[in-house]
Amino acid sequence: MSELAILGGSKIRTEPYPVWPVWDQRDIDAVTEVIKSGRWGGYPFPGPKTAELARKFAEMQGGGYAVPMVNGTITMEVALRAANIGWGDEVIVPAYTFQATASAPMAAGAIPVIVDVDPNSYCLDPKAVERAITPKTRAIIPVHLGSNMADMDALMALAEKHNLIVIEDCAHAHGAKWRGQGAGTIGHFGSFSLQSSKILTSGEGGILLCKSAEHAALVASIIDCGRPHALGGGGDDPNGLAAQGGNFRMSELQAALALVGIARFPEQARQREAMAAYMDEALSEVPGVRVLPRDKRHTTRSFYRYIFAVDPETFGVEHDVLCGALDAEGIECWVGYAAMHNYDLFQPQQTRLAVPSAFPQYFDFTSMDLPEATRACEHEAVWLDEAVFRCGPQGVDDAVAALKKIQRNAGELKQAADELRKKLG
Ligand SMILES: Cc1ncc(COP(=O)(O)O)c(C=O)c1O
Question: Which of ligand 1's atoms lies nearest the C-alpha of 193?
């Protein structure tokens, strides 16, 4: 009988990791209060809970003007529209991210230009960004991926030099800090998702942090059907519209849930940070595992998933087989996103956005060779669920024990994977 659970052995962890989202009486009371108030939706914008959420979230991140809305994709589209970026413009995005980071520029009418990532952070590589800048480039969307932050010093310097707008995609980075400054408050905009898997959640939802009050007022108009919004406030103006907009308002029920989440957040973040530091140390002793080095400027780590890299040579298998084996041991993990430059959807020559007048011929999209994103997405990255870090040292110990067990039995795992591959042709 094999020692490995995936080949019939017994599991390292038999007890499931704790579920997400967490909730208690406070959530029930908050939703009940909104239900009884009769003010469930987001109109007129902002409702009292939404206004309170905007204030408290900006406080939590340490700055900016927050505008809550429906999700963390619309946030980026609206930021682009507020910055007057759209048709014919290019927006630089990393190859390693969720599709929303590239879909949002397309929805705004712009062409997403997908560039490679830094192998140490898996976030945008500033050198690759610089090479991709053309006269049509208007914005950069760095993604603070998993448990890391993009090099905001280098990216902001590039943005300043080339007069570009920076929209931080902080869907994974609530509470994270760079040189003590909150994620999402460094660029011109910070986009946050409150979708149910995220570490601050209202089921669905998003918040856009704006550096300038002028942008915040315009954003509020865009998400509220174009109604004019004065700086720091809202209201109907019967005389007309301030922007072309739609209904992307957050409901009061969602805002109420997010407010309870904010109250709970600091203790959860403290626990995650402590357990992630413990994990960094424990993993550094496992051969074939590369802990992504933490940039010293990333002063507070607050993460969505913990990402590390495995060496397929040492383990004898690629990350997908390793994740299958880890999962069978009871360790919740994932191989991560596919490399975006391989998606058909994002090949500019295949979209109607790339009509000849808008398509810059000097940019050869057909030969996108992004080795670091390819290595991460297809061979080496492993994403551990946040729940692994929410049940004390035992949660981490189990994950490390499972990796060591797989490592001890690497030969057997490789043989089984090879046989299965042969069988499947
Ligand atoms: C990196 C990243 N950006 C954007 C989003 C989009 O957020 P939402 O699902 O709220 O639209 C997500 C999450 O799902 C994400 O992981």
Answer: 10
Secondary structure class of 26 (helix, strand, coil): helix
Whether 72 has a pLDDT exceeding 60, the answer reads yes
Instruction: Evaluate whether 319 touches 335 at the Cβ level (below 8 Å).
Output: yes
Q: How far is the C-alpha of 100 from the C-alpha of 343, rounded, in Å?
A: 13
- List, for residues 349-364, the tens digit of each pLDDT value: 666 665 555 555 445 5
Domains of the chain and any CATH numbers = 5-18+265-337+375-424 (3.90.1150.10), 25-262 (3.40.640.10)
The model's pTM is 0.96
Cα–Cα distance measured from residue 77 to residue 105, given in angstroms and rounded to the nearest whole number = 6
Check if 193 has its Cβ closer than 6 Å to any atom of ligand 1: yes
Determine if ligand 1 sits within 6 Å of the CB of residue 71: yes
Q: Minimum mean pLDDT among 98-102, 274-278, 350-354: which range?
A: 350-354
pLDDT at 239: 59
The count of residues in the chain is 425
